Automatic annotation (TrEMBL):
GO molecular-function terms, A-Z: oxidoreductase activity
Family (UniProt): Belongs to the short-chain dehydrogenases/reductases (SDR) family.
Positions of the Ketoreductase domain: 6-197
PANTHER family on file: DEHYDROGENASE/REDUCTASE SDR FAMILY MEMBER 7B, DEHYDROGENASE_REDUCTASE SDR FAMILY MEMBER 7B
Signal sequence region: none
Major enzyme class: oxidoreductase
Keywords on record: Oxidoreductase
Organism: Bacteroides reticulotermitis
Gene Ontology CC entries for this record: membrane
Annotated protein name in UniProt: Oxidoreductase
EC number per UniProt: 1.-.-.-
Pfam family, one: adh_short
Record has Electron transport as a keyword: no
Length: 255
């Protein structure tokens, strides 16, 4: 995919992976619009990278998503929709009855799957179809390959997203659309969401470099770092892959 001259919208762009993606896409000469819920983070991002266009929006809410679409349209539209925003709730013991299981599952599914991806994709689809070499990037997870015992609902939300992404890509191909649909599968990335984890992590910079390399090669499924290792292991020795994902000492604390 030729990224030159493109305009990209990055959800969850105020920090972490989204902000690093904004930095690297700006360096490549793209027009970058970021959105997020935290105005302070957006202001800080804008201060660090003045070329950014920052729009406060909680895209898990229908009214915010629609307002975001209208503002993006006034800005001239986009060529690439990067669904980067995602959430995770603190791990819970699924063997103990607790209303927090339901609350957490609803929250993760709404943000990671239903709200952000399907809602935004539907809103921006016609705009993207009207552009030359447009694309959607959905961020699933290494946990869509092998589930985590402690992050069961997060794993489920990302698995739903992974299947949806594959189905959307095939559907667009069948109807003759030129919109490309990419799936990014990160391993554990060193962001605020996992600061308390001692497991092996990669940097957001490493992840985004892998994403951009995959986009340029039209590699529709982009696995970075250990995500590729786990994918191959899961095909050849699924029990080994499962043990690797669930090897942290935290998993052995379940009672």
């Amino acid at each position: 995919m030729d990224l030159k001259g493109k305009t990209i919208l990055i959800t969850g762009g105020g920090s972490g992976i989204g902000l690093e993606a904004a930095r690297q896409f700006l360096h490549l000469g793209l027009k970058v619009i970021i959105t997020g819920r935290n105005q302070e983070k957006l202001d800080a991002a804008k201060k660090a990278y003045p070329a950014l266009i920052a729009v406060k929006s909680d895209v898990a809410k229908a009214e915010d998503a629609e307002a975001l679409y209208e503002q993006v349209k006034r800005l001239g539209g986009i060529d690439i929709l990067y669904n980067n925003a995602g959430v995770g709730v603190p791990p819970l013991n699924l063997g103990v009855a607790n209303d927090r299981h339901v609350e957490g599952a609803l929250y993760e599914m709404e943000v990671n799957y239903l709200g952000v991806v399907i809602r935004l994709n539907n809103l921006f689809m016609d705009m993207l179809k009207s552009r030359k070499q447009a694309a959607i990037i959905n961020t699933s997870s290494i946990l869509s390959i092998v589930p985590s015992i402690l992050e069961a609902t997060y794993s489920a939300s990302k698995t739903a997203l992974a299947f949806y992404t594959k189905s959307l890509r095939k559907h667009l191909q069948i109807i003759g659309s030129d919109v490309k649909v990419f799936e990014l599968l990160p391993p554990l990335v060193d962001t605020d969401m996992v600061t308390d984890r001692n497991d092996k992590k990669i940097s957001p910079e490493h992840l985004v470099k892998g994403l951009i390399a995959g986009l340029k090669k039209d590699q529709y499924t982009i696995r970075v770092g250990d995500a590729n290792v786990i994918y191959l292991l899961n095909r050849m020795a699924p029990e080994v892959a499962y043990k690797l994902i669930n090897s942290s000492k935290d998993y052995h604390s379940i009672k």
